[in-house]
UniProtKB/TrEMBL annotation:
PANTHER family: TYPE I INOSITOL POLYPHOSPHATE 5-PHOSPHATASE 5, TYPE IV INOSITOL POLYPHOSPHATE 5-PHOSPHATASE 9. Residues 5-177 form the Inositol polyphosphate-related phosphatase domain. InterPro entries: Endo/exonu/phosph_ase_sf (IPR036691), IP5P_plant (IPR045849), IPPc (IPR000300). Keywords: Hydrolase. It comes from the Eukaryota. This is Type I inositol polyphosphate 5-phosphatase 5.
Length: 212
């Protein structure tokens, strides 16, 4: 599930993001021709699947002023910043993504950077007009059984105002019919008893390929 939610720092924009998530989960349908196949039943909705990974520019912000956020950034006080992270707060309140998981964030906010720079927009006189409160807009969440996150990091590509994030998962997949080959479509698999374990990487906004 890859999505780009509504942007903006105001309360109304957060509510719009919540609405976007609810609409995506409610209205996304997979092909009925495939879903009603008598031989192989395929889930019709996103939440009907055993395991789901959501990634992208979810656009949730840090609910502090730019100045307050900058002070905490200078102290590398991620915990205080994350306490004001909108996505963490709405998940805790059960507003959206109830029952979803996210790995521990141990990297700096991924938005908003000056182009081809390590500086957030607003740190120079020329960029103050376009500044935004530094936030973890780019996120990866998951739900379901048989899925374990092995890594959650950000990458340092500088050709966007975002820094991409990358997660590595081990996913347990039960194979009922065909015996899999060692490599399938670029995914590294290994078999244990009657189950298959898969390792792969997910990169929001396709900024770059993350090797495993």
């Amino acid at each position: 599930m890859c999505c780009h939610l509504a942007s903006g720092e105001k309360e109304k924009h957060k509510l719009r993001r919540n609405s976007d998530v609810a609409e995506i989960l409610k209205n996304t349908r997979f092909s009925c021709r495939v879903c009603k196949n008598k031989v192989r039943q395929t889930p019709e909705r996103i939440l009907d699947h055993n395991s789901v990974i959501c990634l992208g520019d979810l656009n949730y912000r840090v609910a502090l002023s730019y100045e307050e956020t900058r002070l905490l950034l200078e102290e590398n006080d991620w915990n205080s910043l994350l306490e004001k992270d909108q996505l963490s707060m709405v998940r805790e309140a059960g507003s959206v993504f109830k029952g979803w998981n996210e790995g521990k964030i141990m990297f700096a906010p991924t938005y908003k950077y000056s182009h081809n720079s390590d500086s957030y927009v607003g740190e120079t006189a020329n960029s103050k007009k376009k500044r935004r409160t530094p936030s973890w807009c780019d996120r990866i969440l998951w739900r379901g059984n048989g899925i374990k996150q092995l890594a959650y990091i950000r990458k340092e590509s500088k050709f966007s105002d975002h820094r991409p994030v990358c997660a590595v998962f081990a996913v347990e997949v039960e194979m009922k019919n065909k015996r899999p080959s060692k490599f399938i479509k670029g995914f590294l698999l290994h078999k244990h008893k009657n189950r298959i374990y898969m390792k792969t990487a997910y990169v929001p906004q396709a900024y770059e390929t993350c090797s495993i």
